[in-house]
Amino acid sequence: MESLKPSAEVRLAVSHCFQTLSKSTDSKDIPAALQKLNSYLDEGPESPTTSVHRAEFRRTHFTRSLQFLVNNIQADWFHKLTATQRTELWDSLFLRGPPEQALLVLMEGIGLSSGLDHLVNITEKFLQSGRLTDLLWSYCLETAPSDSPQLRETLLGRIVALPDLTANRLHPNNKPLFLPQQYYPLLAAEMLTALDRTCQALKDGTDCSLTFMAQTLGKVCIQGHSTVVLAVLVPHLSMCTCSDMVWQRICWKLLENVPQRWMDSVLTGLVEAVRGPDALGRIIGNLVLTNKKAQFVITHKLLLLQYKYETQTLRVVLGYLAADRDRRPLLIQVLRSLSQAWANPSAVKHTPVEQQLYVSKALLLSVALLKDSELLELRSELLQCLLGGMQSHLDSSVLRIRRMGMVVGECLSSRMDISGTKLKFEVLIMGIEFAFTVLLLFYYCCAVKHFDQKHYINKISSSSSSNDTTTTRKFCKVFYSCSDDELTPYDMSGDQEISQASPPRYIRDCLESMLSLKAAEGLVRRNVFATKEISVQLTKVLLHMEDKYSIKSFVALRQSTMVAIVVTDCIPVTQYLTTEFYSLNYSLRQRLDILEVLALAAQELSKPTSNKSRPPITAVADLTPYPGDNPVHWRQIVEKRIQSKTKRLSKGATQTPAVASPNRYAPVAGHFFFPLLSNYDKPQVTFDLLGSDHLVLGRLIHTLGLFMHLAVNAPIAAQMGL
User: Fold this and answer.
1) Cα(149)–Cα(377) distance, rounded to whole angstroms?
2) What mean pLDDT comes out for the span 145-150?
3) Could you write out the DSSP letters of every residue in 310-356?
4) pTM to 2 decimal places
């Protein structure tokens, strides 16, 4: 009889084991069948199976065997196994075979309701025994079975989202190892171990692939765990790349293979995690020159689009661009972009002060990194930026922006003017503005060696107030050292609030300076005729207003003022708001604000007006009457005596009936209702009620229902209901 092929032999043997486990009643057959399955995982010359049979089992039958065991975890034969037999025969199948297949089966089994505790324990052993390293290393050596993109994406999802998957299933009984605080540092350590093996393999002449490792890193970072993972990876990579070129090549290849959709998260976390520009250069190399996404993140997003990062991040990014000859053209490109952003009048007027401070620091640091030859080439551009930017900053009504313009102007002129003529302002710096300006000067002086330190120390020392003496000493102490440590915040608990300016008297004053938002509502309601002249213009200002100055109860004050304007001049303002609701270039928050203002205004208009008159003012209002001459006193006494001696069969109404008043909402209900209903099914470029913006659609339906309810007794209610 002709012998069977190895694939057929393995298939028949595995099927026989499954039949034995399913049907056998002999207690000796169960361990023997499990031992037969384990024999296909034994390595070495003493293994009872051949290498061809073992490879066929791993490739074709391993996942099927594990799924069979998981599905029969509640069978009688499983519970008849002793604790030792379970560990040596059942658990070992999950801990010895291909790790990627075992992890997928375990995570699938945890989602089932049967045998949960035992599968959780095996998964914990899987992580503790270093199987994640084996998984990553198998993909580095490309010994893992070839898989489809869908299967690889599933495996990446199970590795990265393991804490979420186990938490959803285990709830309060989750294992500590599965928590994000422990799992992600463990994953980072396993990645480092796999990279160490890769480095040694490359030195031994073995080819390796970092594609799967890069995908794992990108997936972890995009899901928000970059800080935890890179806190473990970066120090080790920074140390290994100091003197080992193989490690540098590994890091460069690792980042080159990160998918484009995840490059942003990886680079952002990496820039925040490294200690200096040299370490960043060793880890990512010249990635900004070969990868457009990386170039956008490093040269544009981190410097111009976001401003949440510390100054150390700016130093790392700009120092990285300046450290290599091939990257210095990008530093000049960044300097041009920063100077244009700093000098842009629209940016000075509309961007937050914090972002302008961030851009100013980046501009000063980039100028400080220029060589003299580069500075001469860019001198005309920087001079034009200086003149335009100074004008824009000095024209601002915000004191901090004016101070910023003066400080940046002085620093730029001291760096550019080679002939010796420098721009100097006599700036009186006090209070919090003193700390703000000192901070900006400090960042610059730590980057420029030939900075005129004595001039600024004398200026700051002489212009600071008595409350700022401590801060002055701290600044002067670190001014000469130029260390990388940031200034320690000083105690401001003893500062006194500066007296506020007098409130405006006329409604147009509110239009010119909306810092007086607290007084705006009262002025609107008291000055009806003046409000009607500028009602639409004032509403437009309020609708686009941002809380740039951290005004207390800003949202409520702005909303109440807009409601007062709608009530005062109903038809024009309502027409403006309902038209703007469907206009372009409005955020969802602004559209929701429009609906809230219209709803509150309709409710106020539908309520009866109060006709209470003010109490008369007399000349003797402040005089205290004698107790015996109080007429109210004796009248009350007489009234009580009459009431006590009078018998009544019934009492009529004791309260004065309410005075009827016209419904102010009924005549204008159509102006609220119909314009909002007209364009709900017409999608705009940035606004689609029936699509992605369904949240606003729900609020719109609620608001229209409120308008209909308030107009229930109005003649137009029938048309509104059709």
Assistant:
1) 51
2) 75
3) -HHHHHHHHHHHHSSTTTHHHHHHHHHHHHHHHH-HHHHHHS-HHHH
4) 0.63
